[in-house]
Every structure is written in structure tokens, then in C-alpha cells.
Hints:
There is one protein chain. Helix content is about 65%, strand content about 10%. The chain is mostly helical. It folds into 2 domains: about 1-30, no CATH class; about 35-140, no CATH class. The chain has a two-stranded antiparallel sheet. The longest helix has 29 residues, at about 35-60. The model is unreliable at about 5-15 and about 25-35 (pLDDT under 50).
Amino acid sequence: MTSYDFFAMSDVGPSYTWISCDFLSCLSSSFKNYGTEFMNKRIDRETKTIHKMIEIYCRDHHRENNLCADCQQLLDYAEKRTKSCRFGKEKPVCADCPVHCYKPEMRKRIREVMRYAGPRMIYHHPLLAIRHLLDKRMKAA
């Protein structure tokens, strides 16, 4: 059987490595559970984005180095809601979601955080901000 060589990005970091495998095993290993892995990465990235936004908000409004109790409570709630989204693989970004799973009080708080921290994300965490915008665009298209 023919072996194929290709240049691939490492899962660990921004380094590249040569990978050699036969065609069928390359396909099966590359695309097995692709949707699930993609969604897990996307949900993890969304959770990380929420965490960074709440950190920015708390640091600027509450003058805390670590999250205050209220912001920690909001983060815990947001992580729980994001990870248990009923849309699963088809999860839109929360702003475009047809179902509002947040309690009204928590929804108000997270909107306040996002309105403040969203524009500042491009300066503090540019890659997360760009990926969030791309996720939003992909679901809108």
C-alpha cells in the first residue's frame, strides 16, 4: 500500500511536523469524530472567551486581581449554560440563539459584561476575539 507524507500542525502548539501514513488510515484518523472534536474545541473556546471577558470586566469595574464573588458566580453560570446547550453541534453564538437559556438576571449581567469587554477583547485577546467573530459569521451564513 502506498504511504503518503504530509506536513501537519501539531496539536500541542504552533509547530509543524511530517506525518506519514497510508491513504485510508490518514482519512479515518483525520476525519473520525471531526464534528464532535470541532464542537468540543469551539465550546471550550467559547468558554475561554467568556472567562476572559469577565476577567476584563471585573478588573476594570471591581478593581480585583482575581474574580470577585459576583463575577465568579456569573462565570460558573455561563460555563454551565454553554456546556449544556441543547443545540449541541448546531450551537449558534449566544447572541444569535433563538432560545434564551439564561435566567433574566444573569442574561442582563452577561450582556453588560459583553458590551463592556467585547470591544476591548481585540486589544487583550485578539485571537479569541477574531475566532468569536468568525464563529458568529459561520453560523449566520
